[in-house]
Amino acid sequence: MNNSGVYDIVFVMNQEKEIFYKNTTSKLLKQLDSMKMSDEERHQAKKMVLLFRNSFKSEDVKRATFGREIPEFTYYSDGFCKASSFAFLNAMGERSWKLMYINELWTYGPHFFLKHVPSQQPFDLTADQYTNNGISVPYFMGAPVKLDGQDMKPAQRFINVLAERILKRKVECYAKTRTVC
User: Fold this and answer.
1) Do 77 and 128 meet the contact criterion of CB atoms below 8 Å apart?
2) Structure confidence at residue 71 (pLDDT)
3) In 126-136, which positions are buried (b, 16+ CB within 10 angstroms) versus exposed (e)?
4) Per-residue pLDDT tens for 87-125?
5) Which of 3, 77, 97, 170 is the most exposed, fewest CB within 10 Å of its CB?
6) How far apart, in whole angstroms, are the C-alpha atoms of residue 110 and residue 81?
7) Inter-helix orientation angle 39-55/3-33, to 10°
8) Cross-strand partners of 99
9) What is the sign, positive or negative, of the torsion defined by CA atoms of 77, 82, 85, 87?
10) Residue of 162, 147, 172 whose CA lies nearest to 64
11) Residue 105 DSSP SS3
């Protein structure tokens, strides 16, 4: 097979995943519209969803979050469930959100996600790592969990690298415009 044929196959697979990824991000944003929260909270939550979902694509973010030896990921959101759910919870607060955990008894587990307390809806920033492969996440198996010690390290690294990226963009913007961005 020639290089052109191989490239076309890879491109179609990547394009399909990219479309699925974008559609999932849109669904998450629409789900936030259906949840009872202030306009300010909704705006903050949507900004975080977009920031996190865009960051999942970055090799730098993966390396910073998971260390030098990045596992073989086949999809953007693979592996980010704990770090992104914990970061989202810390930013939005525990009054309205709970960190949930599905243990290893689930064939594809473990898995972390959030529960929006007022609506009792699961909110899963990385469900598409499963649904992309036709696997439904059994949210009924989830139980509240708190992270501590070693469990928090990837989540803290994820938060740190996102903060660095945001600061870098603001500095670059200021350098170009000489106004606070």
Assistant:
1) yes
2) 63
3) bbbbbebeeee
4) 999 889 899 999 999 988 788 879 999 999 999 999 999
5) 3
6) 9
7) 160
8) 114
9) negative
10) 162
11) coil
CA 72 to the chain's CA centroid: 17
**What's the burial of 58, exposed, middle or buried (CB within 10 Å: 0-12/13-18/19+)?**
middle
If one compares 47 and 71, the residue with the highest pLDDT of the two is 47
Which CA distances in Å does 10 have to 21, 54, 75, 85?
Answer: 16, 21, 13, 31
Number of CB atoms found within 10 A of residue 175's CB: 9
Summarised one tens digit per residue, pLDDT across range 128-181 is: 999 988 999 999 999 999 877 666 677 778 888 877 777 676 666 667 777 666
Q: 8 or 52, which is more confident? A: 52
Q: Whole-angstrom Cα distance, residue 166 to residue 78? A: 22
Question: Mean per-residue pLDDT for 62-90?
Answer: 83
Sorted by sequence, the CB contacts under 8 Å of residue 136 that are 6+ apart come out as 130
The H-or-E segment that residue 149 falls in is none
